[in-house]
Write a structure and sequence with these properties.
Number of domains: 2
Helix content: 40-55%
Shape: elongated
Number of helices: 15
Number of strands: 12
Structural class: alpha+beta
Radius of gyration: 26 Å
Order of helices and strands: HHHEHHHHHHHEEEEEEEHHHHEEEEH
Distance between the termini: 32 Å
Length: about 350
């Protein structure tokens, strides 16, 4: 395999060194630096050959910004703000910088640069931005007409801190065409550029994610903004706010009675599979030298199947720790389940020494 290394004339190395900084930008919480953000907005307009907006208005969240812009009777309707200039401020310089780098580095060089910079931030940041978009539509649109209006306004948005993957890959320093966009991203959240008005959002006040970068919190909002706009999630799956409040009082009966299969899985994870097996009086369906196979039938959902295994290496106090391994529903024997965790078939699983 070809070693991945930097081969161009200097600024790729600088970009690679800036990845951690841009990762922090994408995940930043707390009050915006409003002066720096407003200066960045004006610089972005100037770089696009546009006059600065007459007004820069702040919103406490993307929800507040969409509500402000979508109010036909409000002070910032389309007649007062003019047309969107996102294409000039963001899309055109973005495309030009990408074309410049592609020309200078060639296809392989640009691919290498992206792999070393923006690609490292892309999945988690794009997933977060997508959840915000979905949450805005869910909370602001009461019918299909309103949904269309919200989605149109979201097309006008520049993602600020959540544009970090691309800004990480581009040249944003000094007098670069993207310097203004980078300044806003480092200082604030999403923003909307129009001819006569720019609306800029505060950053979240809370952001909670699991080790895989998914929104995750069991005792409150996983993402929250100053005005109360919030998203609740458990290991990446959206959940209602009041659902989380009921997790502490779970019982096996309550879990079985939940009609939503996805929420039932969240309940099981929170309650604990081993605890559920004990509390529900489950019986093992198979045992052999590798462990014990347990099956939990669930209404209108696939069975939960787990293998109980005992660590062959004793703990310092002489006890042996028990582990529970989730395996596919079609598993029929404990050996088959343990083998699956190693990517093997039951016949191929024959460890010489277990640890």
């Amino acid at each position: 395999m070809e070693a991945l290394h930097v081969v161009d004339t200097g600024d790729t190395a600088d970009a690679v060194h800036g990845v951690d900084g841009w990762r922090a930008v994408a995940a930043a919480t707390g009050p915006a630096d409003r002066a720096a953000a407003e200066a960045g907005v004006r610089l972005a307009y100037r770089a696009a050959g546009l006059a600065a907006p007459d007004r820069i208005v702040w919103a406490d969240s993307p929800r507040a910004a969409v509500g402000l812009l979508g109010d036909p009777d409000g002070p910032w309707g389309s007649h007062a703000r003019g047309r969107s200039v996102r294409a000039e401020v963001r899309s055109a310089p973005w495309a030009a910088e990408r074309a410049r780098l592609h020309e200078r580095l060639g296809p392989r060089g640009w691919g290498r640069r992206w792999a070393l910079t923006g690609a490292r931030l892309w999945e988690n940041t794009e997933r977060l931005a997508g959840r915000i978009r979905t949450g805005l539509v869910e909370q602001l649109a009461q019918d299909t007409a309103q949904e269309a209006e919200v989605r149109l306004l979201l097309l006008d948005a520049v993602l600020g801190q959540h544009d970090a993957p691309w800004l990480c890959a581009f040249d944003t320093g000094g007098r670069a065409p993207l310097a203004g966009l980078a300044a806003v991203a480092r200082s604030a959240g999403w923003w909307w550029p129009y001819e006569m008005l720019a609306v800029v959002c505060e950053r979240p006040v809370e952001l909670h994610r699991d080790e895989a970068g998914r929104l995750d919190r069991g005792d409150g909002p996983a993402l929250a903004f100053p005005d109360g706009f919030a998203l609740h999630a458990w290991r990446g799956m959206p959940v209602p706010a009041d659902f989380l409040a009921g997790l502490e009082g779970l019982t096996p009966e309550r879990i079985r009675d939940e009609e939503n299969a996805e929420l039932r899985r969240v309940m099981l994870e929170h309650y604990g599979y081993e605890r559920y097996l004990t509390a529900s009086g489950a019986e093992p369906v198979h045992r052999d030298g590798t462990g014990v196979l347990w099956r939990i039938p669930l209404p209108d959902d696939e069975d939960v199947v787990m293998v109980e295994v005992v660590n062959s290496t004793p703990e310092p106090d002489g006890t042996s720790r028990t582990y529970w391994l989730r395996v596919p529903p079609h598993t029929r024997t404990a050996r088959e389940g343990v083998a699956w965790t190693f990517g093997l078939g039951a016949q191929a699983y024959a460890p010489v020494l277990e640890t």
